[in-house]
Amino acid sequence: MAEKLRIDKLLAHMGFGTRSEIKRAVKLGKVAVDGKVVKDSGLIVTPAQHKVTFDGETVVYRDVIYLMMNKPQGVISATEDGRERTVVDLLAPEDRLLNPFPVGRLDKDTVGLLLLTNDGGLAHELLSPRKHVDKMYEALVQGNVNEDDASAFQAGVTLDDGYVTLPAELQVLSRSLPRDSNGVIDDDGDQAAPVHSLIRLTIREGKFHQVKRMFQAVGKKVLTLKRVSMGPLKLDEYLPEGHYRELTEEEVELLKAHRGTGKQ
């Protein structure tokens, strides 16, 4: 059944003012339905069937929102905080109207893909531990990440609290030696030991600081961390850090169709 709403509630929901402001606008003849000016702010309309305009502007009604953010460093994954700047603080006022929230958390110093939505059902599907939704990260790690580490991650590593992680896929993208301020390799005479590794890691759970703790468990330190995908949703490579955009219809459908791997 198509949703029906009072016209003042619809307009307030879409950011055209408070109920009292909209009531005044209706009395001034600024609101029309299907081309006819209305005088009753309590008029019931069906957004999917009626064309509503405000001051000549067509009102596009929606009750859900899906945003992809390339989260920057220094903000926390929360809707509000008394001391810290949050990802919601980065949204334009019109994009806050439907009260989107971050799906999962990225650490304050972690960057990359963050989904914000008010679709609670979808958020539950993506976050449920039983769904085992893939989350892929790229990281710069201090230390020579090697096949032993990949094997350990595949088997599951024991974190500092005794928790054993689910199997994870670790891939080394490149290795490099540190350089001094002049760009000269500083290897302390050991040409055979790269100390920085650029890696890609896919995990299927979301424990607190998990990626950092996994590398800590094998004696290495994460220097930078970026999430590049979550389930079928991939970070838009053209989206700068600190910016966001709405998901495309195709991306929304991919997320809705995704139900995790289901592997135990």
Question: Mind sketching the topology for me?
Answer:
Blueprint: E1 5-6, H1 7-13, H2 19-27, E2 31-33, E3 36-37, E4 44-45, E5 52-54, E6 57-58, E7 66-71, H3 93-96, E8 101-102, E9 111-117, H4 120-127, E10 135-142, H5 147-155, E11 169-176, E12 196-203, H6 210-217, E13 221-230, E14 233-234, E15 244-246, H7 249-257
Parallel strand pairs: 9-13
Antiparallel strand pairs: 1-4, 2-3, 2-5, 5-6, 7-9, 7-15, 8-9, 10-12, 10-13, 11-12, 13-14
Family: Belongs to the pseudouridine synthase RsuA family.
Protein name: Pseudouridine synthase
GO molecular function: RNA binding; rRNA pseudouridine synthase activity
CATH topology of the largest domain: Alpha-Beta Plaits
Unreliable stretches (pLDDT < 50, length at least 5) are none
Q: Indicate the proportion of strand residues.
A: 25-35%
What structural class is derived from the secondary structure elements? alpha+beta
Q: CATH top level of the largest domain?
A: Alpha Beta
Which radius of gyration do the C-alpha atoms yield?
Answer: 24 Å
SSE order: EHHEEEEEEHEEHEHEEHEEEH
- End-to-end Cα distance, whole Å, is 38 Å
The CATH superfamily of the largest domain appears as Alpha-L RNA-binding motif
- Could you say what the CATH architecture of the largest domain is? 2-Layer Sandwich
On the 0-100 scale, what is the average pLDDT?
Answer: 90
Helix content: 10-25%
Largest sheet: 9 strands, mixed
Structural domain count? 3
Please tally the helical runs, counting DSSP H or I stretches of 4 or more residues.
7
Write down the overall geometry: elongated
Number of beta strands: 15
EC number: 5.4.99.-
Family: Belongs to the pseudouridine synthase RsuA family.
Organism: Paenibacillus pinisoli
GO cellular component, one term: cytosol
